[in-house]
Automatic annotation (TrEMBL):
EC number, UniProt record: 1.1.1.3, 2.7.2.4
Function as written in the Swiss-Prot or TrEMBL entry: Bifunctional aspartate kinase and homoserine dehydrogenase that catalyzes the first and the third steps toward the synthesis of lysine, methionine and threonine from aspartate.
Keyword hit for Kinase: yes
A molecular function GO annotation: metal ion binding
Boundaries of every ACT domain copy: 403-477
Recorded metabolic or biological pathway in which this protein acts: Amino-acid biosynthesis; L-methionine biosynthesis via de novo pathway; L-homoserine from L-aspartate: step 3/3; Amino-acid biosynthesis; L-lysine biosynthesis via DAP pathway; (S)-tetrahydrodipicolinate from L-aspartate: step 1/4; Amino-acid biosynthesis; L-threonine biosynthesis; L-threonine from L-aspartate: step 1/5; Amino-acid biosynthesis; L-methionine biosynthesis via de novo pathway; L-homoserine from L-aspartate: step 1/3
Keyword terms of this UniProt record: Amino-acid biosynthesis, ATP-binding, Kinase, Lysine biosynthesis, Metal-binding, Methionine biosynthesis, Multifunctional enzyme, NAD, NADP, Nucleotide-binding, Oxidoreductase, Sodium, Threonine biosynthesis, Transferase
SUBUNIT field: Homotetramer.
Gene3D superfamilies linked: Acetylglutamate kinase-like, Aspartokinase, catalytic domain, Dihydrodipicolinate Reductase, domain 2, NAD(P)-binding Rossmann-like Domain, VC0802-like
Full protein name: Bifunctional aspartate kinase/homoserine dehydrogenase I
Domain of life: Bacteria
Cofactor: a metal cation
Protein family: In the N-terminal section; belongs to the aspartokinase family. In the C-terminal section; belongs to the homoserine dehydrogenase family.
């Protein structure tokens, strides 16, 4: 014999009830079918009762609406000739309900006992209507009044079952009948005085489990509107998947922690008798669903290779902390705390105590927090008044997120992975609990972070074979920024396929406009230019605020501007664990304290601050230097040509076209800074050697660098147009520089050097035997002389400027964020 339970959504309307009966008809062994009230009915019955209690005649309308709903369902299901009996049954039930609610209305009092009586009509009506429909379909069965066979105490609304009496009554009723099919209302029972009781919200699952245990069923099937228990709430996690198989214990943990497909007490009766329990979908009956069964080697193999079964959460919590030096080493404090809470019927969801015994922390429903504080402060009044204990501290707007899995036991590294993933995403853990069963690790976090946390953990534990989502915010979509977007667009599929990374651009901006997409979406990379034009007016503050408020996992802010204000927002973002990738050099070459503080902040908040493209564009200059230092090498000297623009200019200038024209060409090719005077004046190279010196461990400022510039001072007066005009006028100066070098068989190169705590930049004559002589186009070269490379330097050389190569370097930094 098996037991099937159909929930509210499965019997929400006539068409669904037909599906239910079809499933029942497929059964090839005796069955007990337990049904809930039609979807939404219990809430409406509660509402009617409460309206009546408040003296509000609107309760009549609610009852009328409910009556119509049930009459309509009966009319839709039954042929006209079979309707009258069922319709008059419905009317009779509603007459009774009206009488009860009128009593409540007159007395303006709604006891839990009366409330149970009112809500019991939901299951009575649904089961009677379904029974009538089954008869009309010639499905022979016996309707059983659950109130007659499930006996409870008188704890109305959450009654405790008397299993010995109930098991006997159920088996007598079932095994004395010659029927093979039984239909029973869920949720309802009765006490020793035959007063109707209920088993708690969601109690129909429990009813089914009680029947299953009483008849020692071959299986219990919980039919609902989802295909089994999921690895996480599918409304939050797009990649949530059905759990094929799990143990009773893990199912219980998951259901306690918010996986609402099964009412938590349901598991106990079936677990005791080892009855396999299936969660199935009424609307996709052929799908496998989830099997909950005893944990053994076979079931463990069936559960697959995942260590974690699922991730669930509970919201609307408060954390209560009792702290004080007076607690240390004195027995009885926790007993008094829990007694105070129990006396006020405050349910404790999670408990932690530091080993110093200086504090005990419990999580409770937020609604109970104030009464808990009142009770606890009263209990500890003497200790509070003499300063041994502090008044109970309440922190609100919290949630619990729990990792559940049978295979977590003795599997090292799970909590490390959990907290690492949360930490990298700036999710602060307020309290932690793990039972010695090692089946559940629960953490208390801010409610605002819970959706992000569920996604982060789902990604960390279930999506290694699917993908990791990267949420990218780009400020600056000019020369380099637009190439970056083009590269991201082109490589989207490659990233998914080869690196399991889903790179989504979630926000973009230029100096005038900004554009964001709603959570879950990405900016359309085919139409982003037009879409950005239609976006909101750019406000840097608003942009940053939105990035933070979106609170997305694996978020990265990409600065592709040359703007000082943009460079000032990094810290704010890093403090929220949002990584920063910058090709803008301003922050890394700003005051040393700021540079250091950004690096420190990134480290402290588990974010990355990456700026590889600040030197040598896409060349691995900074990463090479970092690798040398991380492995213990010491940098003695750096010699480099670091300006793509200047290398291009001096490689192309020979007096045949004016110097100014060659510079203009470099700008056209996309090698110069947005303001080319920074390149020609040496500032760009100063920034780069400064950044390299700092990365080599030197505490240095811009002012410490000597700039042996070659541009006449008059070139810096006025605008960029004036700059070009003045360079034209100064052509003889540039010609002379060239001629002298040429006459010495040398080339002109703008060289940067760092050694012994000093750095300089300037134009040099490079002879033919120099490493720098054969440096063509806009290439860069960096020579690292270190303890390990004292004579023959480590050389990094290649294209050192240009939108494509720079975008490619930024791209690589972005991917590093998805570590
Ligand atoms: N070119 C190269 O080879 C390399 C460049 N870089 C660095 O790349 C960065 C970008 O260079 P590039 O793309 O050539 O510059 P562009 O001038 O072409 O683009 C700059 C972008 O930043 C936007 N912007 C400027 N100010 C703001 C602001 N306050 N808020 C929002 N957006 C702003 C601009 O918007 P709008 O169009 O509205 O003005 C534009 O979209 C520079 O820092 C440069 O040093 C680094 C290595 C190599
Ligand atoms: N303007 C720079 C570009 C990269 O930083 C250069 O010319 O090297």
């Amino acid at each position: 014999m098996k037991v099937l339970k159909f929930g509210g959504s499965s019997v929400a309307k006539a068409a669904n009830i037909q599906k239910v009966v079809n499933i029942v008809k497929r059964g090839n062994e005796p069955q007990i079918v337990v049904v809930s009230a039609l979807g939404g009915v219990t809430d409406m019955l509660i509402k009617a009762g409460m309206l009546a209690e408040n003296g509000d005649e609107l309760y009549k309308e609610v009852l009328h609406e409910l009556e119509i709903k049930h009459l309509d369902a009966a009319r839709e299901l039954l042929p006209v000739t079979n309707q009258s009996g069922c319709l008059s049954m419905v009317k009779q039930y509603f007459n009774e309900l009206e009488d009860i609610c009128e009593g409540v209305y007159r007395l303006q009092e709604l006891s839990l006992r009366t409330k149970d009586r009112i809500v019991s009509f939901g299951e009575l009506l649904s089961s009677k209507i379904i029974s009538a429909y089954m008869l009309s379909q010639h499905v022979a069965h016996q309707w059983i009044d659950s109130r007659k066979v499930i006996k409870t105490n008188s704890n109305f609304s959450f009654a405790g079952v008397d299993f010995s009496e109930t098991n006997k009554l159920i088996s007598d009723a079932i095994f004395s009948s010659k029927e093979n099919l039984f239909l029973a209302p869920g949720f309802i029972a009765s006490d020793v005085n035959n007063h109707t009781t209920t088993l708690g919200r969601g109690g129909s699952d429990y009813t089914a489990a009680i029947f299953a245990a009483a008849v020692n069923a071959s299986s219990l099937e919980i039919w609902t509107d989802v295909t089994g228990m999921m690895t996480a709430d599918p409304r939050w996690v797009a990649n949530a998947k059905t759990i094929d198989s799990t143990s009773y214990q893990a199912a219980m943990e998951l259901s306690h922690f918010g996986a609402k497909v099964i009412y938590p007490p349901t598991i106990q009766p079936v677990m005791q008798q080892n009855i396999p329990t299936y969660i199935k979908n009424t609307f996709a009956p052929d799908e496998k669903g989830t099997l909950i069964q005893e944990l053994n080697s076979a079931s463990s193999a069936a559960a697959g290779t995942e260590i974690i079964t699922g991730i669930s959460s509970i919201n609307s919590l408060a954390l209560l902390s009792l702290e004080g030096s007076g607690m240390v080493g004195i027995p009885g404090f926790s007993k008094r705390l829990f007694e105070a809470l129990a006396n006020e019927k405050v349910n404790v969801i999670l408990i932690t105590q530091s080993s110093s015994e200086h504090s005990i922390c419990v999580a409770v429903n937020a609604a109970d927090a104030s009464k808990a504080k009142e009770a606890v402060d009263k209990t500890f009044e003497p200790e509070i008044s003499n300063g041994k204990v502090e008044p109970l501290k309440i922190e609100r707007e919290l949630s619990i997120i729990a990792l559940v899995g049978d295979k977590m036991k003795s599997h090292p590294g799970i909590s490390g992975r959990m907290f690492g993933a949360l930490g990298r995403n700036g999710i602060n853990v307020r309290a932690i609990a793990q039972g010695s069963s090692e089946r559940n690790i629960s953490t208390v976090i801010a409610a605002a972070d819970v959706k992000k946390a569920v996604n982060v953990l789902h990604e960390a534990f279930f999506e290694s074979t699917t993908y990791k989502q990267l949420n990218i915010f780009i400020v600056g979509v000019g020369n380099v920024g637009s190439k970056l977007i083009a590269q991201l667009k082109q490589q989207q599929e490659f990233l998914l396929e080869h690196s399991n990374i889903q790179a989504r651009i979630t926000g973009i901006a230029n100096s005038r406009k900004m554009l964001f997409v709603d959570n879950g979406n990405a900016i359309n990379l085919n139409t982003w230019q037009q879409d950005l034009e239609k976006g909101d007016q750019m406000s840097l503050d608003k942009f940053v605020e939105t990035v933070i408020d979106k609170n997305l996992r694996n978020a990265v802010f990409v600065d592709v501007t040359a703007n000082g204000e943009v460079a000032k927002v990094y810290k704010q973002l890093l403090e929220k664990s949002i990584s920063v990738v910058a090709c803008n050099k301003i922050a890394a070459s700003s005051a040393y304290d700021n540079y250091k503080s950004l690096k420190f902040t990134a480290n402290e908040f588990n974010a990355l601050y990456l700026f590889e493209t600040n030197v040598g564009a896409g060349l691995p200059v900074i990463s090479t230097l970092n690798d040398l230092r991380k492995s213990g090498d010491v940098v003695n000297k750096i010699q480099a040509v670091l300006s793509g623009t200047l290398n291009f200019v001096f490689n192309h200038y020979n007096g045949s076209v004016p110097f100014a024209e060659v510079v203009r060409q470099a700008q056209k090719e996309g090698y110069t800074e947005p303001d080319p005077r920074l390149d020609l004046g040496g500032t760009d190279v100063m920034r780069k050697i400064l950044i390299l010196a700092r990365e080599a461990g030197e505490q240095m400022e811009m002012e410490d660098i000597t700039n042996n510039g070659f541009l006449p001072a008059s070139c810096f007066e006025g605008s960029v147009d004036d700059f070009y005009a003045e360079m034209l006028r100064q052509e003889p100066h540039f010609r002379a520089l060239y001629d002298v070098a040429h006459s010495r068989n040398s080339k002109l190169k703008f060289v940067a050097q760092y050694e012994g705590g000093k750095a300089s930049v300037g134009l040099q004559h490079i002879p033919a035997d120099s490493d720098f002589y054969h440096l063509y186009g806009k290439d860069n070269i960096v020579l690292f002389y270190t303890q390990r490379y004292p004579v023959q330097p480590l050389v990094v050389k290649g294209a050192g400027a240009g939108a494509d190569v720079t975008a490619s370097g930024v791209f690589a930094d972005i991917i590093r964020v998805a570590r």
